[in-house]
Amino acid sequence: VQLQESGPGLVKPSQALSLTCSVSGASITTNYVSWSWIRQAPGKGLEWMGAIDYSGTTTYNPSLQSRTSISRDASKNQFTLHLNTVTPEDTAVYYCVKSIGLPGEFWGQGTQVTVSS
Fold first, then answer.
1. Of the four, 5, 10, 55, 70, which is 20 to 30 A from 100 by CA?
2. How far apart, in whole angstroms, are the C-alpha atoms of residue 52 and residue 33?
């Protein structure tokens, strides 16, 4: 299983950010599997942002819920993080993860996003 994040490396404050995770070796519609977005800001720990499961049901970190949404394109086997109104505090390495905390957990390599004018 391989996961690959893609998206802009630099975003201006107040803009929206979209990152896509392309999955190979597994289907994002496989029963009982969830697909998450995690980030790590400089000098901080991992932060779970949200997830979309095999049925398309989404769950979000309450602290980010007002600015976050996750969608998917099953035909492309991809899922996408949308984060609105970014600030410099959203600067982080963003990871997509399969089955976080469970057997069969896989991580993407991560993608750096910097929010700066």
1. 10
2. 9
For the segment 50-83, what is each residue's pLDDT rounded down to a tens digit?
999 999 999 999 999 999 999 999 999 999 999 9
N- to C-terminal Cα distance for the chain?
36
**pLDDT tens digits for 30-49?**
999 999 999 999 999 999 99
User: DSSP of 53-64, one letter per residue?
Assistant: ETTS-EEE-TTT
What is the spatial distance between Cα 60 and Cα 66, in angstroms, rounded to a whole number? 9
Can you tell me the distance from the alpha carbon of 21 to that of 89, in angstroms, rounded to the nearest whole number?
A: 22
Secondary structure percentages of the chain, helix, strand, coil, to 5: 5, 50, 45
Among residues 32, 33, 36, which one has the least CA distance to residue 49?
36
User: Where does residue 39 rank: exposed (0-12), middle (13-18), buried (19+ CB within 10 A)?
Assistant: buried
Residue 20 CA to residue 70 CA, distance in Å, equals: 10
Tell me the C-alpha distance between 78 and 89, whole Å.
26
